[in-house]
Design brief:
mainly alpha; 0% strand
Amino acid sequence: MPGDRRPAPAPDVECRLEDGLLAVRAAEGDENAFEALVRRHAPALLRLAATMLGNATEAEDAVQDAFVSAWRRLPGFRSQAAFATWMHRIVINRCLNMLRARRLVADLDAVPEPAAPDHVASPARTAESHAAVRELARSLSALSPEQRVCWVLRELEGRSYESIADTVGISPEAARGRVFRARRCLTEAMTAWR
């Protein structure tokens, strides 16, 4: 209509929508809203799960299971925590269950190793770097699942102790203690690589 001054819809409206609103819509059965949440949060959750599990395939399974669980539990989501925090907790719990089920047997070949450019590293230095990465992966797998998740959230994701506590469901002091013990174990294990 010529006199109609309604603004045109934004090209990517879902990016502006708050997670809380998308979660409410998804809880009401809106599959598009849930799909937007999955697209928004899956990459970070996959990185978290891959770091915790050391295996990309298991990480994908853990995140997929977490999203299936979240879809079923969305009607009970009360927005007391941010949707991202809620999803992190679901993924962490799934990873912890998987780690406990396999009794912390790590597939070290599945841990990605950073590749140095050919022009920078000598073969000896490259071999030494690969050995150090394998030792770090082995040392991480030796941590308790509870210590590992706190260490990953603090050291790799840069989370505060309060955020870790909220995500894992413990006190900030317990989170700080788990990170401290994990750091101490990793420092001892990696002494030869300093």
